[in-house]
TrEMBL record:
<dbReference type="InterPro" id="IPR027417">
    <property type="entry name" value="P-loop_NTPase"/>
</dbReference>
<feature type="domain" description="CP-type G">
    <location>
        <begin position="60"/>
        <end position="223"/>
    </location>
</feature>
<dbReference type="InterPro" id="IPR030378">
    <property type="entry name" value="G_CP_dom"/>
</dbReference>
<dbReference type="InterPro" id="IPR019988">
    <property type="entry name" value="GTP-bd_ribosome_bgen_YqeH"/>
</dbReference>
<dbReference type="InterPro" id="IPR050896">
    <property type="entry name" value="Mito_lipid_metab_GTPase"/>
</dbReference>
<dbReference type="InterPro" id="IPR048422">
    <property type="entry name" value="NOA1/YqeH-like_C"/>
</dbReference>
<dbReference type="GO" id="GO:0005525">
    <property type="term" value="F:GTP binding"/>
</dbReference>
<dbReference type="Pfam" id="PF01926">
    <property type="entry name" value="MMR_HSR1"/>
</dbReference>
<protein>
    <submittedName>
        <fullName>Ribosome biogenesis GTPase YqeH</fullName>
    </submittedName>
</protein>
<dbReference type="Pfam" id="PF21516">
    <property type="entry name" value="YqeH-like_C"/>
</dbReference>
<dbReference type="InterPro" id="IPR006073">
    <property type="entry name" value="GTP-bd"/>
</dbReference>
């Protein structure tokens, strides 16, 4: 059997097959006496972290090891895909360590929404999901908004201890850490990576100035995200890049909205009312009569009703219906990873459709 080579930075087993997995290094460097993986290489030479993906089992191992040390855990969620990027059960594994909750991608929400209100909402959602964070921050890692405050919160709550940054893939964890590195290191002040003692968990270490360290953990993949059901081109359409402009539809009973061909909302009963749609601005929304909806979908899926684009519809899972009665005012019907529809008044009966495997849930309105 071939001998396993480990990265001298993070301890990951070196492999040359998959760039998105821990321990990737191009074949050309395998001959060297000391091999460093691409992720550690980037940190060492460019002061930049790169995200890699991890299996669920390995992620549990990492959480377990965090639980055994004293540290501050920084949990990053994507505010646009709050529930889909949540990492359930994190607090059970990290034991008594404090958790700082960071909502990223705040730039995507309408500017009219005030941060204190969003933070209050995050606190309520966290509480409902069983997490009591020591603090909550809202940032835009891409725009650099809220980063200074988040860094202050990290300093305040870590009390000289190490910091672990955790999150699903795509929440913007790397962008966030790279921002922090940018703000804390001067030019030429190159970070070194070093083996995380005692384990081989593919965690990379970013030294803080008091001898403690910030650890970048690989991102866990959320298998229920819409992102796994569309191709790269379509993913670009459904991933919002700019501030979302909500679209308001006044619907009569027995009307249907299609969100591309990816999701659908049937308004069954409850009188004429408005539905506010929060999706990427580029995602087309079509309104039709409920009685015509099935035929339209059969005929126009991948055409008028796209994404998904035509060449991808064979691989697309069938839409599954979820029936809801909206009981509270200001309720969001969330299509995990795609967006949500806000229903302002109680009493509406709806049927929401998403591809098999993608969650649909009801929550208190974010906005
Ligand atoms: P990671 O997988 O969690 O490390 O996520 P990345 O840092 O690689 O970011 C994933 C995607 O989200 C990229 O396309 C980023 O450009 C984007 N992204 C990261 N931070 C933000 C943000 O603050 N706002 C917006 N709109 N996009 C972001």
């Amino acid at each position: 059997m071939e001998q396993q080579i480990r990265c001298i930075g993070c301890g990951a087993i070196i492999q040359s097959e998959d760039e998105t997995k821990p321990g990737y290094a191009p074949k050309s460097v395998l001959e060297k006496e000391e091999v460093i993986c691409q992720r550690c290489f980037r940190l060492k030479h460019y002061n930049e972290v790169q995200d890699v993906e991890l299996t669920d089992d390995d992620f549990l191992k990492i959480l377990h090891s965090i639980g055994q040390s004293e540290a501050l855990v920084v949990k990053i969620v994507d505010i646009f895909d709050f529930n889909g990027s949540w990492l359930p059960g994190l607090h059970r594994f990290v034991a008594n360590n404090p958790i700082l909750l960071v909502g990223n991608k705040a730039d995507l929400l309408p500017k009219s929404v005030k941060y204190p209100k969003l933070i209050h909402w995050m606190a309520q959602m966290a509480n409902d999901l069983g997490l009591k964070p020591v603090d909550i921050c809202l940032v835009s890692a891409v725009k650099g908004i809220g980063i200074a405050k988040a860094m202050e919160a990290i300093e305040k709550h870590r009390l000289g201890k190490n910091v672990y940054v955790v999150g699903c893939t795509n929440v913007g964890k790397s962008t966030f850490i790279n921002r922090i590195i940018q703000e804390t290191t001067g030019k030429g002040n190159v970070i070194t990576t070093s083996y995380f003692p005692g384990t081989t968990l593919d965690i990379i270490e970013i030294p803080l100035d008091d001898g403690a360290a910030l650890y970048d953990t690989p991102g866990i993949i959320n298998h229920h995200q819409m992102a796994h059901f569309v191709d790269k081109k379509d993913l670009k359409i459904i991933t919002p890049k700019r501030e979302i402009h909500p679209k308001v539809y006044q619907l009569n009973e027995q009307q249907t909205l299609f969100f591309g061909g990816l999701a659908r909302l049937d308004y069954i009963k409850g009188g004429r009312r408005s539905f506010v749609c929060y999706f990427a601005n580029e995602l087309p929304i079509h309104r039709t009569k409920l009685e015509k909806a099935d035929a339209l979908y059969a005929k126009q899926f991948g055409e008028l009703l796209s994404p998904p684009s035509k060449h991808y519809i064979d691989q697309f899972p069938p839409l599954v219906a979820h029936t809801f009665t909206i009981k509270e005012r200001k309720t969001d019907i969330v299509f995990s990873g795609l967006g949500w529809v806000t229903c302002n008044e109680p009493g509406a009966q709806v049927v929401a459709y998403a591809p098999k495997g993608v969650d649909i849930l009801i929550r208190k309105s974010l906005i």
